[in-house]
Amino acid sequence: MSSSSARERYEVVVIGGGPAGLSAALNLARARRRVLLVDGNRPRHAATLMAHGFLTRDGIPPLELRRLGREEVAAYENASVVFAQVGSVTVEADGFAVTGRGVRGGADVDVLTDAVVVATGVAEAMPAIPSLRAYYGTQLHSCVECDGYEKAGEPLALIGETSDLAERALLLTQWTDDLIVFTNGVAPVAEDEERALARLGVRVERRPIDDVEGEKGVMTGIRLVDGTVVPRAGGFLRPVWTPSLSFAASLDLEADAEGYLVTDRHGRTSLPGVYAAGETTAPGPQQLVVAAGSGAVVAAAVNRDLIGLALDETAVL
After folding, report:
1. What does the pLDDT read at residue 287?
2. Of the residues 238, 260, 289, which one is the last residue of a structural domain?
3. Checking CA distances to 97, which of 1, 66, 168, 197 falls within 20 to 30 Å?
4. What is the tens place of the pLDDT at every residue in 27-70?
């Protein structure tokens, strides 16, 4: 470990190079802050071919959106971007120490900073179905608001094992009248929920799933453990999301029952100097455009706090 005097110092380190982190870094760079953006380059949406609902960028590949964002941030002489997986963030006498190991040829990180923005999003765990990921990002998706339009009118599956499956199914009826909910023998869909879905023509299939079937990379159906094949052209998954925060364990940040960081409406966490943006905070996974907006809000709060301005919590930034 380097001594404090030998470490490079930044005013803000942004951890996470998705839309929330990129937006925060860009706005802080424009506020003339010395910013380091650390991107672990393991985006949750790596398999997604197109992102939707982002004004002026509807249909852009998410990886291209990230690339363009990194270039915009790095164009500012007071901002730097590095590919590294952050290992720890610790409190020092004169700020925070951020360390990490370089990835994709990026340099290792060992720096000091006055403020930290956590924008690392979530990790997702899928139902244990062998071929699921072969169709994820093409025929199967996780964000209804993002990809429902492209699936309109198709015979769809909704696959999940969580208690909110019926709610997601009701939302999907906006786009299709041919929907089957697959609980994989796990999801607790109540009888009253099943009746409400049935009134809309939605069937609940409670038998466990064996696998997803397809031909030449195109999904054709869901095969159940008893051998029954239910034809489906695509659909949506309900993964289990978990905030990616292991590097911040020593900070003892306040979190809710699901592990999301608790913040005020400007993104301040329970530890002064540490902020959170995007999917790291409740209510969980959001559209890319919403995450980018969150990053801008947090950047404004960070800049004001570094100046020493006390924000009136009754005001709107």
Report:
1. 86
2. 238
3. 66
4. 999 999 999 999 998 877 666 778 888 889 999 998 999 999 99
Alpha helices in the chain (DSSP H): 19-30, 62-74, 144-147, 165-172, 191-199, 288-307
Does residue 315 carry a pLDDT above 60? no
Among 127-141, 187-201, 274-288, the minimum mean pLDDT is found in 274-288
CATH number reported for the structural domain that contains residue 181 in this entry: 3.50.50.60
Over range 7-14, report the average pLDDT: 96
Domain residues for the domain of 13 are: 4-123+240-307
- Tell me how many domains the chain contains: 2
253 and 117 co-located in one domain = yes
In a domain, 316, yes or no: no
- Mean pLDDT over 218-231 rounds to 98
Can you give the chain as a three-state secondary structure string? Answer: CCCHHHCEEEEEEEECCCHHHHHHHHHHHHCCCCEEEEECCCCCCCCCCCECCCCCCCCECHHHHHHHHHHHHHCCCCEEEEEEEEEEEEEECCEEEEEEEECCCCCCEEEEEEEEEECCCEEEECCCCCCHHHCECCCEECCHHHHCHHHCCCCEEEEECCCCHHHHHHHHCCCCCCEEEECCCCCCCCHHHHHHHHHCCCEEECCCEEEEEEECCEEEEEEECCCCEEECCEEEEECEEEECCHHHHHHCCCECCCCCECCCCCCECCCCCEEECHHHECCCCCCHHHHHHHHHHHHHHHHHHHHCCCCCCCCCC
Choose one of 238, 265, 298: the last residue of a domain. Answer: 238
What pLDDT sits at residue 244? Answer: 92
Which pLDDT does position 46 carry in this prediction?
Answer: 65
Q: What is the pLDDT of residue 283?
A: 76
For residues 274 and 300, state if they share a domain: yes
